[in-house]
Amino acid sequence: MLEKSTSQVNDILLAYMAHWGLTHSAISIQSETFRHWSIHPCRWQVEVSRQLLERQLNLIMISGTGSGKTLTFWMPMLYETAITIVITPLKALGAQMAKESEECGFRAMNVTAELMGSCQHLVNVCMPCHCLIMLLLMKW
């Protein structure tokens, strides 16, 4: 009997799922995340990403500091080109997430009040971009 490596098995499963139109399964999300970043995502990260890809409405994710929320925003971007909007309460956190997003190959823009004041047509500037992460500062 032939032995197959984990990557061969994943490739076979992905081909099977693609054949039957099952492109956003937990297995495919895990495999693509590992292939792209060499990271094994947690089950909750995969489930949130799957629901985002399936356009689940009113999705709220609550997770502690350092638990991997940013990866969860990135994972759906492996499958589609869109503008992802992340709202953050701190300028420093927005700047950090923008930097990390750029380092992982995504275009990112940290939108602050200062930037909004200097660019009245920000939406028109962003529309031609694909896989852009916009980080908005939310004041309480």
Shape: elongated
Question: How many E-type strands?
Answer: 3
Quaternary organisation of the protein chains: single chain
Low-confidence stretches: none
Descriptors:
3-stranded parallel β-sheet, alpha/beta, 140 residues, 3 strands, elongated, 7 helices, 2 domains
Molecular structure report:
With 140 residues, the protein is α/β, with parallel strands linked by helices. The protein folds into 2 domains: 56 residues, no CATH class; 60 residues. The mean pLDDT is 75. It has a 3-stranded parallel beta sheet with strand order 1-3-2. It contains 7 helices and 3 strands.
In short, what is this structure?
With 140 residues, the protein is α/β, with parallel strands linked by helices. The chain has helices at residues 6-19, 26-37, 43-53, 69-74, 91-103, 113-118, 122-126, and strands spanning 83-88, 107-111, 132-137.
Topology:
Layout: H1 6-19, H2 26-37, H3 43-53, H4 69-74, E1 83-88, H5 91-103, E2 107-111, H6 113-118, H7 122-126, E3 132-137
Parallel strand pairs: 1-3, 2-3
